[in-house]
């Protein structure tokens, strides 16, 4: 594991979560999409709690399962597990929607399980993903999409320089506000909060 896979590990962040994004593979995505926690845990590199295989996240796992089946190389870019290293615990999911597009844009997505929210995990996961984006030479822009009523996520994105660039309709999530920030890399400490 490299530092880019961890969040909240600096000296000023002693109380912040120490997380890394653990990537999953096709069989794990398929098992989660099917709601089969036992099968997912048989192939996952870290233990997954029941919430991961529950109905709230199955749509994401179905999408990622199809995506990785079509191109296995995308597994290293797409949604993985937000892993709390200190507690040895899966607390959420985070990653990009895929590799950078032709314009150099990556879209970041993250969600923290309800029992682990409001503890800094979303911030730590976002920092991990922004640091990686800054190190990838083909990435020039990072994007997040946020529901109009999700004030906490909007405040978090604003703290990292994301600005509103428009809106879009998502078939699964409905209306979303699109925010982007230029990515200048490599700058490992540029997103320390």
**Rg of Cα set:** 16 Å
Mean pLDDT over the full residue set:
89
CATH top level class name:
Alpha Beta
- Poorly predicted regions are 1-6, 8-12, 187-193
Neighbour order of strands in the largest sheet: 1-2-3-4-5-6-8-7
Determine the strand fraction and express it as a percent band: 25-35%
Largest sheet: 8 strands, mixed
Tell me the total number of β-strands: 8
Termini separation = 21 Å
Spatial shape: globular
Q: What is the name of the CATH superfamily? A: Gcn5-related N-acetyltransferase (GNAT)
CATH-defined topology: Aminopeptidase
What is the domain total for the residues? 1
Describe the overall structure.
This protein has an eight-stranded mixed β-sheet. α1 runs antiparallel to α2 (37-43) and α1 (26-33) packs antiparallel against α3 (58-70). The protein has one domain (3-182): Aminopeptidase (3-Layer(aba) Sandwich). It has 193 residues and is of the alpha+beta class. It is built from five helices and eight strands, in the order ββαααβββαβαββ.
Keywords:
Aminopeptidase; single chain; eight-stranded mixed β-sheet; globular; 193 residues
Question: Helices, strands, pairings?
Answer:
Elements: E1 6-7, E2 19-22, H1 26-33, H2 37-43, H3 58-70, E3 80-84, E4 89-96, E5 105-112, H4 121-135, E6 141-146, H5 151-159, E7 163-170, E8 174-182
Parallel strand pairs: 5-6
Antiparallel strand pairs: 1-2, 2-3, 3-4, 4-5, 6-8, 7-8
